[in-house]
Design a protein that fits this description.
The complex is a heterotrimer.
Chain A: E1 29-33, E2 45-51, E3 54-61, H1 69-73, H2 81-86, H3 93-108, H4 114-145, H5 148-168, E4 177-178, E5 181-182, H6 188-212, H7 216-222, H8 230-235, H9 241-245, H10 252-255, H11 276-300, E6 321-329, E7 332-340, E8 348-352, H12 354-358, H13 362-366, H14 371-381, H15 385-389
Antiparallel strand pairs in A: 1-2, 2-3, 4-5, 6-7, 7-8
Helix pairs in contact in A: 3-4, 4-5, 4-11, 4-14, 5-6, 6-11
Chain B: H1 4-22, E1 47-51, H2 67-71, E2 77-87, E3 93-103, H3 112-116, E4 122-124, E5 140-141, H4 143-146, E6 147-149, H5 150-156, H6 158-190
Parallel strand pairs in B: 1-6
Antiparallel strand pairs in B: 1-4, 2-3, 3-5
Chain C: H1 13-23, E1 29-32, E2 42-45, H2 50-59, E3 67-76, E4 79-95, E5 98-114, E6 117-126, E7 131-139, E8 148-150, H3 159-170, E9 173-175, H4 212-231
Parallel strand pairs in C: 2-7, 8-9
Antiparallel strand pairs in C: 1-2, 3-6, 4-5, 6-7
Classes of the chains: A alpha+beta, B alpha+beta, C alpha/beta.
Chain lengths: 390, 212, 232
C-alpha cells in the first residue's frame, strides 16, 4: 500500500508538517527510496512525492528489521536480555547495556561499586567517540566523499574496538554490564592501553576538523539545510545531538545525574541554527568533551570490586513494580521501561528508541528541499535500524 | 580564497597517502588470509566443552546439570542426560551428557553459559573460521566436535585456564582431605579405639567459587 | 545516588493530582502506587478528560511538562476470579414426616471473569525545568470491543509514531490521531502481535535441526502440509 495515499485527518492544533504548495502543472512523481538503498543506513523506506526535484510529501516506512525484541523479553529472564540489548543499536552496544542495567538497578534498588561506575563511564565515552566519528564519516560518504573520511574514522574506531575486545571478549556485541556492576575487571595493562588510545584521539579530531570543517563543499551543502526549530524539537521528543544542535540545552548526563557524571567537568555543545552543519559540529565537539571525560576518568579510577557481592546472577526475581531508566546514549535518550510481576521474566519490557523518535520530524525537515538534501538530512539524524525497529 | 578549505583537505589526504608508504601507522591494512592479526586473549566466539586428560569421553567435565541449557538466551543448547554414571575429577560418580548439541547458527556468543556453569565444563573458543557448505547439519556441533582438551584451553586463554586449574586443584585437595579424615574416622571406629579428636567436617558442595 | 540515576521531581504525585483536579474539574485522577524501589508512582487518568489534563500539564507554569519521552502499551488479560461465598437459601425438606421450609447455609464457589484491559503509559519530562518523570496511565474498558483512547498527539508530537506502534502491536485505537496506521508490521497484517494471548500463524519455513520445540513444530507443519496436499 502506498503510504502517500493516506490522508491525514483534520486534527486541530497539532504540530503538523507544513504543506508545500506546488504550481499545479503536471503530476507529482512518487518514488520509494529504499528499503534496498545504500544511503538509508539500513533497511528503511521513504515514500517521496516529488515535484521535479523538490520534496512535497515524505512518509517514512520501517519495520523491515523488526525482530520482536520486546516480546522475546517476556519469555526469557532478565539476565538473558542483556545480550539482546547489544543488538538494538548495534554500533553502541555498551551504552545499550548500561541503559538496561540502569533500569533493572532502579527496579530493584541495586547499588553499584565505584570502580564499576568508572569503568562504565570510560566505556560509554569511548562508545560515544567512536559512534560520532562513524556518523560523521557516513554523513560525508553520503555527500560524495567516497569513503575516505569514513575510513579515517574507522581507523580510530578499530583502536577502540580492539580495546573492547581485550576487555569484554567481543568487538561489537559486548554483553559486559551486569545488574550491580560489570562482568570482569579491567587489568592495569588494559587501562594503560586505553590511556594510549585516548592520547591519540585529539590528534585525530584535529585532523578530521582540518579536513572537513572548513571544506567549502561541506559548508555549502550543510549550512542552512534541514533546519529544525527548537520548539518543534522539544515537542516532538527529539533528543541527543539533534536537539542540542537546535539550541536546546538538555543533556541527560547533566539533568539526571546518573552514574558518577557529576564528578567530571565537561561542557555541553549547543548549536545556533539547527541545520546539518550544526549537528556535525555538535558531534565533533562532543567527541572532544568525551576525550576530556575519559582523561579525567582514567586518571581517577579507584581500585575495588567491579560487581556488588550481593547481586544475584541466577534466580533473579524482582518484586512487582515498574521502573523507567534512561541514559544519554550517543543517539539520544535511550530508555528502558520495565514492569515486573514477581516472576523471573519481565511482564512488560519496552525500549524507548531515540532513533525512532528522532525520525518523527524527518518530514518537517525535508519538505521543500531537494532529494539530495533528503539523503544528507537523513544522515544527520543518525539512526540505526536495529533501534528503530527493534 | 575560494577553495581554501578543499585544498587544506586535499593536503591532509596527500599526507596520509604519502605517509602510508613510509610509516606503519598510516598503513593499517592486514592482508588476510596470508597475514593474521593475533586475537586478544579474552576474545570469544562459540563455546566448547573442556575435558581433562587424553580421553575425551572419560575426562569430560560436564555433568549434564542443564543449567546452561536453561540460561541460554536463544536456547541453542540441547542436552540429553545419561542413565549411568562415571567418576569425575574428584572421583565422585556423576551422570554425563549422552547428547550435547550446540546450534552455532543460533548461538549469539553471549558467554552466559560459561558464567553460570558450576563445573568449569564449558568455555569460550575463539575459532571463527567455521564456514561450511553443509546447510542443515554443518552448523550443529555435537559432543565430539565440541570437546577440546584442557591443553587447548591453556593455549587459547592462558590466564583464565591457569586460574580455573588452580581453583579445581584446590577443590580436589579439599575433597581428598575430607575423604582422608572420613577414612581415618572409619578405621579408628573399626579398631575399637575412641574416635580421634578431629572436628566433624560439614559437607560442602563441590561447586567452586566463581569469579564474576 | 550510586547505581540509580536520579529522577528530579518538583512535586509529589499527590500534589500533581491536586493540581490537575484544581485545573480540570471532574477529571478522574487516581494514584497508582509502584511497588519497586524506583519510587515512580503513576497517575491514572480517565479517558474523557485526558486531552484537557494533558494540555494543562504541558502549559502549566510550574510543571511545564513539555517533553513526552515514552508511550508504552501494556496488556492485562481477563482474570478468572473464584471466591467462596456462604449462601443462605430456603429449602423444602421433609423432617419427621412433615414438609417444612428450612433455611440452609451452603458454601458455593462463584466464579466471575474480571475483564482485562489495555493500558497506555506515558512518561513525561520537562526540558524547560529539567525535572521528571511524571507517569500517566490510561486504561481501556476491555480488550475486545471497547479499545479506544484519546490520542495525545495534538499535544505532544512525539506521540505520533509511538501511538501508531501501540495501535499496531496492541490494538488500542487512538481517537484523534492524525494518521493511525500500522508502524512495524505490514499494513495487511491481522491481529495484534504483542498481546499476551497472541498465537502465531503456522507459516514458517523450517530447517531440520534437532532443536526440540522447533523440530516438533517442523514435523507437525510438514505433516499438515502433506495432509493438505493429499486433500488438494
Amino acid at each position: 500500500m502506498n503510504s502517500l495515499d493516506v490522508k491525514t485527518e483534520r486534527v486541530e492544533g497539532w504540530n503538523r508538517p507544513p504543506v508545500i504548495e506546488t504550481d499545479g502543472e503536471g503530476e507529482l512523481l512518487e518514488v520509494a527510496m529504499g528499503p534496498h538503498h545504500p544511503s538509508t543506513h539500513g533497511v528503511f523506506r521513504m515514500d517521496l512525492a516529488l515535484d521535479g526535484e523538490r520534496v512535497v510529501r515524505l512518509k517514512p516506512v520501517f519495520g523491515y528489521l523488526h525482530r520482536n525484541h520486546e516480546q522475546i523479553a517476556e519469555t526469557v529472564s532478565y539476565l538473558a536480555m542483556m545480550p539482546y540489548t547489544d543488538r538494538l543499536d548495534y554500533i553502541c552496544s555498551l551504552t545499550n547495556n548500561w541503559a538496561y542495567a540502569l533500569a533493572v538497578e532502579k527496579l530493584v534498588g541495586q547499588e553499584v561499586p565505584e570502580r564499576a561506575e568508572y569503568l562504565r563511564v570510560i566505556l560509554a565515552e569511548l562508545t560515544r567517540a567512536q559512534n560520532h566519528a562513524s556518523t560523521i564519516g557516513f554523513l560525508l560518504q553520503e555527500m560524495g566523499a567516497s569513503g575516505t573520511p569514513l575510513m579515517y574514522a574507522f581507523r580510530e574506531r578499530e583502536k577502540i574496538l580492539d580495546l573492547f575486545e581485550s576487555l569484554t571478549g567481543s568487538r561489537m556485541m559486548c554483553n559486559y554490564m551486569r545488574f550491580g556492576g560489570c562482568r570482569v575487571d579491567a587489568s592495569p595493562a588494559w587501562l594503560d592501553a586505553a590511556r594510549k588510545v585516548v592520547a591519540a584521539l585529539p590528534a585525530f579530531v584535529d585532523e578530521f576538523e582540518r579536513f572537513l570543517s572548513g571544506n567549502e563543499i561541506v559548508m555549502a551543502r550543510c549550512q542552512g539545510v534541514g533546519i529544525l526549530r527548537p520548539d518543534l524539537a522539544v515537542n516532538a521528543g527529539v533528543t541527543g545531538p539533534m536537539l542540542r544542535a537546535s539550541g536546546v540545552n538538555y543533556d541527560i548526563r547533566k539533568v539526571d545525574h546518573y552514574g558518577i557524571y557529576d564528578r567530571f567537568r565537561f561542557r555541553v555543545p549547543l548549536g545556533d541554527h539547527g541545520d546539518i552543519y550544526d549537528r556535525y559540529m555538535v558531534r565533533v565537539l562532543e567527541i572532544r568533551e568525551s576525550i576530556g571525560i575519559l582523561e579525567q576518568a582514567l586518571k581517577d579510577i579507584p581500585n575495588g570490586p567491579v560487581m556488588d557481592p550481593k547481586a544475584k546472577i541466577r534466580g533473579f526475581r524482582p518484586k512487582p513494580g515498574e521502573a523507567y531508566g534512561r541514559i544519554e546514549a550517543p543517539k539520544g535518550e535511550l530508555g528502558f521501561y520495565l514492569i515486573s510481576d514477581g516472576t523471573p521474566n519481565p511482564y512488560r519490557y519496552r525500549v524507548r528508541p531515540p532513533s525512532l523518535i528522532n525520525l518523527t520530524v524527518l518530514e518537517d525537515m525535508c519538505l521543500g528541499s531537494n532529494v539530495a538534501d533528503v539523503v544528507l538530512i537523513f544522515g544527520s539524524v543518525d539512526i540505526v535500524l536495529g533501534e528503530v525497529d527493534r | 580564497m575560494l577553495g581554501e578549505g578543499i585544498l587544506k583537505g586535499l593536503a591532509e589526504t596527500a599526507k596520509n597517502f604519502a605517509g602510508s608508504f613510509v610509516s606503519k601507522e598510516r598503513m593499517t591494512t592486514v592482508e588476510y588470509p596470508e597475514e593474521r592479526l593475533p586475537l586478544p586473549e579474552a576474545s570469544r566466539n562459540f563455546p566448547f566443552l573442556v575435558y581433562d586428560g587424553s580421553d575425551w569421553q572419560a575426562g569430560l567435565r560436564c555433568v549434564a546439570c542443564q543449567i546452561c541449557e536453561k540460561e541460554c538466551p536463544p536456547k541453542c543448547i540441547y542436552i540429553e542426560k545419561s542413565k549411568d554414571k562415571k567418576p569425575d575429577y574428584v572421583g565422585k560418580l556423576q551422570i554425563y551428557p549422552t547428547k550435547f548439541d550446540i546450534d552455532i547458527s543460533v548461538c549469539m556468543s553471549c558467554q552466559i553459559c560459561v558464567e553460570v556453569c558450576p563445573f568449569e565444563a564449558i568455555k569460550m573458543n575463539n575459532e571463527f573460521e567455521l564456514a561450511t557448505d553443509n546447510r542443515f547439519g554443518g552448523l550443529l556441533l555435537d559432543r565430539k566436535e565440541l570437546a577440546k582438551s584442557n591443553e587447548y584451553y591453556h593455549q587459547i586463554h592462558p590466564t583464565e585456564a591457569a586460574e580455573v586449574d588452580a581453583r579445581l586443584a584446590a577443590e580436589k585437595a579439599k575433597a581428598e582431605a575430607k575423604a582422608k579424615a572420613a577414612a581415618d574416622a572409619a578405621a579408628a571406629k573399626a579398631a575399637g579405639a575412641p574416635a580421634p579428636a578431629t572436628p566433624t567436617r560439614v559437607a560442602k558442595p563441590s561447586e567452586g567459587e566463581r569469579k564474576s | 545516588m550510586d547505581g540509580a540515576g536520579g529522577d528530579s521531581i518538583v512535586k509529589t504525585v499527590e500534589e500533581i493530582k491536586a493540581a490537575i483536579e484544581a485545573a480540570v474539574p471532574g477529571a478522574g485522577v487516581t494514584v497508582v502506587h509502584n511497588g519497586s524501589p524506583s519510587g515512580q508512582h503513576s497517575l491514572r487518568i480517565e479517558p474523557e478528560h485526558a486531552v484537557e489534563v494533558a494540555t494543562f500539564l504541558r502549559d502549566d507554569a510550574e510543571l511545564a511538562l513539555d517533553f513526552l519521552s515514552n508511550v508504552t502499551g501494556v496488556d492485562f488479560l481477563d482474570k478468572e476470579v473464584s471466591e467462596k461465598i456462604k449462601v443462605t437459601r430456603p429449602v423444602t425438606k421433609t423432617v419427621d414426616g412433615l414438609e417444612q421450609t428450612v433455611e440452609e447455609t451452603v458454601e458455593e464457589t462463584r466464579k466471575h471473569v474480571e475483564p482485562g484491559y489495555l493500558e497506555a503509559v506515558y512518561h513525561l519530562f520537562s526540558v524547560a525545568k529539567k525535572h521528571g518523570p511524571v507517569v500517566l496511565r490510561m486504561r481501556t474498558r476491555n480488550r475486545s470491543d471497547e479499545v479506544e483512547l484519546p490520542s495525545l498527539t495534538p499535544i505532544w508530537r512525539s506521540a505520533e509514531f509511538q501511538e501508531r506502534e501501540v495501535f499496531d502491536l496492541y490494538g488500542i485505537v487512538f481517537k484523534g490521531h492524525p494518521d493511525l496506521r500500522r508502524l512495524l508490521m505490514w499494513d495487511e497484517f491481522k491481529d495484534h502481535p504483542m498481546r499476551r494471548d497472541y498465537v502465531e500463524p503456522d507459516d514458517y519455513e523450517y530447517e531440520p535441526t534437532p532443536h526440540d520445540k522447533v523440530l516438533a513444530r517442523a514435523q507437525a507443519h510438514k505433516a499438515a502440509a502433506a495432509a493438505g496436499e493429499e486433500k488438494a
